[in-house]
């Protein structure tokens, strides 16, 4: 890749409720890549954006239900969301809120550009709307009960209202070319095919404002003060707000959006058309991940199976949650997670795996009194295979490769039995020194490699193995007690 600046984004979460582990997964996926880029490029050129989507019907209704002002409600939820992702050590550079004053101004200006370009016109919308998706629906998109397949318990709304429409259909051929020629990369491949299939059915223009008398909670449309911007024509622009404010929305920056499968269409088909209309740079890549279920069920409040990321962090530590979700999360297909599986993985890969390897190595090197050169952590010691997996954003596969290296070193220790060398009087013979040196070098490499996944443990191991002699310390991942 020739671009040397990076803008990495996640979807911004609705504020109808505090985020759960499913939402957090996406932040971790983006965080791992941001950390990897900072390790392999100039760290100051990496910008990682996340935040909250605060306008629109769902947020307003949630506030009404609580009997407090919408502003008060979204502020509270936004702060709680931020605390959740902080608990996971997500290293964002900005936590944007769509109520931030710079965004409110920039979104209105963006919309005005589309107006100036002749892509916005007044019309009447008569049709169906799913408030949970904040999305217009056609009959063919509903299930056999006439409900939204993503929100089967929510009633579909019938809207008839005067709106301003965006001339989306005008961009049909532009979008086809963009995706077919991979000028915008849509990953994984299956999602790219899905987007192309949808596009080939034909795009219809969509409303991009809502009348204020129906929905006052939004950004006022600059061409008509009785309208607010439709929530997607506000939320998507958050990327441009933060990007342009940091001089990153240009062709020198590699722009990648991480999103879930339910909102791929907005990012792959609407967002590039909006940018083209307003005359701005397009993103390079949209990575679409699957959904996480819990014990075989969709995670939802009504099912009562919501787990907050911080609950897991309190019990197992941020690194363990990060590792489990990054390695076993829904990076391509939907996956099921469960606490028993998490505990199994924790014990095998972290407590007995990495934790035990570091502990036994440090102990044997300390006993041998081995003296070595101080560590040089300036280069990220990835193999070409790891680099190739990172270039496809497959953090899960990188984790597999790193843990193979961990297992290989464990096997080497079992085979060479360094504790037997310690019993001999010649612990520092040339041949033995090779063993001590290999152990030192490999643990230092592993400490660097795991950093995008488990930054706290990485920092601890790096510090422990930084100097000329290595001292043992207490275990990194305590064994679980039932
Ligand atoms: N506000 C919109 C996004 C606007 S982006 C300009 C939205 N918000 S959301 O809160 O409903 O979802 C935020 C992100 O979390 C989406 O990418 C969504 O796909 C993802 N996930 C929500 N539930 C999830 C799982 N159970 N599993 C994995 N990701 C999940 O959509």
From TrEMBL:
GO terms assigned for molecular function: ATP binding; methionine-tRNA ligase activity
Record flagged with keyword Secreted: no
Domain Methionyl/Leucyl tRNA synthetase: 148-361
Keyword vocabulary terms for this entry: Aminoacyl-tRNA synthetase, ATP-binding, Ligase, Nucleotide-binding, Protein biosynthesis
Keyword Ion transport applies: no
EC number: 6.1.1.10
Database matches in InterPro entries: Met-tRNA_synth_2 (IPR023457), Methionyl/Leucyl_tRNA_Synth (IPR015413), MetRS_core (IPR033911), Rossmann-like_a/b/a_fold (IPR014729), tRNAsynth_Ia_anticodon-bd (IPR009080)
Any single GO BP term: methionyl-tRNA aminoacylation
Superkingdom classification of source: Bacteria
A Pfam family: tRNA-synt_1g
Annotated PANTHER family: METHIONINE--TRNA LIGASE, MITOCHONDRIAL, METHIONYL-TRNA SYNTHETASE
Family statement drawn from the similarity comment of this UniProt entry: Belongs to the class-I aminoacyl-tRNA synthetase family.
Protein name from the UniProt record: methionine--tRNA ligase
Annotated organism of origin: candidate division WWE3 bacterium
